[in-house]
TrEMBL record:
Residues making up the signal peptide according to the UniProt record: none
Protein name: DUF3727 domain-containing protein
Domain of life per record: Bacteria
Organism: Leptolyngbya iicbica LK
Length: 191
């Protein structure tokens, strides 16, 4: 599902999403729907989601490097350097719930700063699923090059609305179980 900036209205209500570690991500509520007496929402983070990838030598091709995900356990040691590099671009990196995020004005995407990354899943047409990213900065840590990027498509979060005015992330196994009803509810509203 692809959304454009015009699909998102800036004066929608906001809600805090918390993770198990107590970190918070403020989101705007795009849509709410009910499934089985429970209230769910489609949320859009207010700050820009970012990811950190590492460049590692490709085992199959010499003199070629491949972008790989950074292990969650390594993020903490990379944060000070990543924060300093992004601060040079007037961006503030936060360790928020669900994702790392930055606040500040992002540069306009330029073709040379954007790339497509196969994310391993296969879509309905049998093609590898891919995601487009914009590079924000690069840095080195312990002789490894890292790239900080943001997805070009918005990160949409599905959450269960809490009675206290907060939201709970839907665990992957619960999301998969609810997927048909979530998609049906979203498409009913969009029609």
């Amino acid at each position: 599902m692809t959304f454009s900036d015009s699909d998102f209205v800036q004066d929608r209500p906001t809600i805090a999403v918390k993770d198990e570690a107590g970190r918070v991500l403020m989101c705007q509520i795009e849509q709410t729907f009910e499934i089985g007496q429970r209230q769910y929402a489609l949320l859009l983070p207010l700050d820009t989601p970012v990811e950190i990838f590492a460049w590692e030598p490709d085992e199959e091709e010499e003199d070629t490097d491949t972008l790989v995900d950074v292990e969650e356990s390594d993020i903490e040691m990379l944060l000070p350097t990543a924060r300093a590099v992004l601060a040079e671009h007037d961006l503030v990196l936060q360790r928020s719930a669900v994702t790392l995020s930055v606040s500040g004005e992002l540069p306009t995407p330029q073709e040379e700063d954007c790339f497509t990354l196969d994310i391993g899943d296969i879509d309905e047409d049998g093609e590898p699923d891919s995601e487009e990213f914009q590079t924000l900065a690069t840095f080195f840590h312990n002789d490894v090059e890292y790239t900080i990027c943001t997805p070009l498509d918005p990160l949409l979060i599905f959450a269960e609305m809490g009675a206290a005015g907060d939201a709970r992330m839907i665990p992957p196994e619960e999301f998969e179980r609810l997927r048909p009803e979530i998609e049906s509810s979203i498409f009913d509203v969009l029609e």
